[in-house]
Amino acid sequence: xxxxxxxxxxxxxxxxxxxxxxxxxxxxxxxxxxxxxxxxxxxxxxxxxxxxxxxxxxxxxxxxxxxxxxxxxxxxxxxxxxxxxxxxxxxxxxxxxxxxxxxxxxxxxxxxxxxxxxxxxxxxxxxxxxxxxxxxxxxxxxxxxxxxxxxx
Length: 152
Description:
Elements (H helix, E strand, L loop, with lengths): L10 H12 L5 H8 L3 H13 L19 E9 L4 H9 L4 E6 L6 E7 L2 H8 L6 E7 L14
Antiparallel strand pairs: 1-3, 1-4, 2-3
């Protein structure tokens, strides 16, 4: 179970998180100028935020369209009785699934899938049809892109 103890952040922590969320490659010197601290003091704050589990990782965001993925879909997956673990393993083995959550309700999983074309959807889901019911929705637009939860 994840640690849900809330960490108190001051205004400097929040400014650092804002800047790092916008560009995780911002230098310690630039961050220090932004918040009025030295680069070593910024490094210590970032390490503390990492140690406390506020910052989990530094990563990159890829442009899926530039990599040839023209479509994105969300698929709701309801495993047939006794097939839950089998479906979970199958989903974990599909690199086109960029996010998958276990959810409440009739569906057990909701997966985000990147597709090069519409035929990819059948290629990926057809092997599941003897093990699960699936319902797919193609993404038309993204009015709220992926973002972090509020921390203020």
